[in-house]
């Protein structure tokens, strides 16, 4: 049996007529760059996230960059984040001219460890940027309490957490702002690139809107240096269609995760995801850990099971950030994550038969 890591074709085919109709309306109106279809999606995403404002942008990296720029982060400043993330989290900090400061993560959830946060705070820190990793939110109450104590803003990287919740509050709604990616493989994925910023701060939302339009307050009136970071109309229309399905798709992912948990519980040497109390995990990825990760991946691939590594190199050990001079061993939990984590097939259309096959292959390897 061949089990894909992700099956975007299956998802899109289930709503093909709705997608075609939505795209057709954009074509008829020629509202390609921003416009009414983007505005409609922004309004719908506001309601979904439980916030006051949503601003569609070109991708998740632009969302992070735009927020930090709108908050005045710049040269001489620092932003605290985690090393086990996609590089875009840290690139956004660098694009502002600021310096990333890393803190380690909690075992099991692999999200920012609040116990390590306070010791990383210094006068240069302008923001804290927790990553809601794999579909589960970080310990936001603890992070926000520390941030409030020091008068520091919190920006959520919610690129993997569309619909995740912390004690009933949706990802993106707890910090000063939340940043989303709509890369096609996300739980809410466009048919191309896309992103969004959500916030309750009207001034911040207005600043992000200016940034995405070359710093314009009105056409050809540029108040500041910005960027071309608009969400296009086709993607806005697509996202409106898909947002209606997101709750059901997330529930299907949770059900698939429960089957994995049932079948893999007690497998020697295999660590399963930990769902922290009060958190709603939407399983963008289903990640496990094993000391012989690379050999296990090779075994699974030989059996026709596609899998991934998220992420093989912590950011502080990449060539891109070697200039920071942070040595190996600085963040042992994140570094263990890089060495031992693998992501198993996870998507709403995954069948029990496929999950049973994957679990059987893992048990064969361990035995």
From TrEMBL:
**Keywords, alphabetical:** Pyridoxal phosphate
Q: Give the matching Pfam families.
A: DegT_DnrJ_EryC1 (PF01041)
GO molecular-function terms, A-Z: pyridoxal phosphate binding; transaminase activity
User: Which biological process terms from the Gene Ontology are attached to this UniProt entry?
Assistant: polysaccharide biosynthetic process
- Ribonucleoprotein is among the record's keywords: no
Keyword Metal-binding included in the entry's annotation: no
What residues bear N6-(pyridoxal phosphate)lysine in this entry? 186
Q: Which CDD domains match?
A: AHBA_syn
Catalytic residues in the record: 186 (proton acceptor)
Q: Which family does the record claim for this protein?
A: Belongs to the DegT/DnrJ/EryC1 family.
Q: What is this protein called?
A: Erythromycin biosynthesis sensory transduction protein eryC1
Q: Specify the species.
A: Oceanidesulfovibrio marinus
């Amino acid at each position: 049996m061949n089990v894909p890591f992700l099956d975007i074709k299956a998802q899109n085919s289930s709503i093909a007529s709705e997608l075609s109709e939505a795209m057709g309306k954009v074509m008829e109106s020629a509202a390609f760059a921003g416009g009414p279809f983007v505005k409609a999606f922004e309004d719908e995403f506001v309601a979904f996230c439980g916030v006051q404002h949503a601003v569609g942008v070109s991708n998740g990296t632009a969302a992070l960059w735009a927020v930090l720029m709108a908050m005045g982060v710049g040269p001489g400043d620092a932003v605290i984040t985690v090393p086990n993330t996609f590089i875009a989290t840290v690139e956004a900090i660098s694009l502002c001219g600021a310096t990333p400061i890393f803190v380690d993560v909690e075992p099991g959830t692999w999200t920012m460890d609040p116990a390590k946060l306070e010791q990383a705070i210094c006068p240069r820190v302008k923001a804290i940027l927790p990553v809601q990793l794999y579909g589960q939110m970080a310990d936001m109450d603890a992070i926000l309490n520390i941030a409030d104590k020091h008068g520091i803003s919190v920006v959520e990287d919610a690129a993997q957490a569309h619909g995740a919740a912390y004690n009933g509050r949706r990802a993106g709604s707890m910090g000063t702002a939340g940043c989303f990616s709509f890369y096609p493989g996300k739980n809410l994925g466009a048919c191309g690139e896309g992103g969004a910023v959500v916030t309750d701060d009207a001034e911040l939302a207005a600043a992000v809107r200016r940034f995405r339009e070359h710093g314009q307050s009105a056409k050809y009136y540029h108040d500041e240096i910005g960027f071309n970071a608009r969400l296009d109309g086709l993607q806005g229309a697509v996202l409106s269609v898909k947002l209606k399905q997101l709750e059901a798709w997330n529930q299907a992912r949770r059900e698939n995760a429960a089957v994995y948990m049932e079948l893999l519980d007690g497998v020697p040497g295999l660590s399963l995801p930990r769902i922290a109390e009060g958190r709603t995990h939407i399983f963008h990825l289903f990640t496990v850990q094993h000391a012989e990760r690379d050999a296990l991946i090779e075994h699974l691939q030989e059996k026709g099971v596609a899998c991934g590594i998220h992420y093989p190199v912590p950011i502080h050990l990449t060539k891109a950030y070697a200039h920071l001079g942070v040595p190996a061993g600085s963040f042992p939990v994140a570094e263990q994550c890089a060495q031992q984590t693998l992501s198993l097939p996870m998507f709403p259309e995954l069948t029990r038969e496929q999950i049973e096959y994957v679990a059987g292959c893992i048990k064969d390897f361990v035995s």
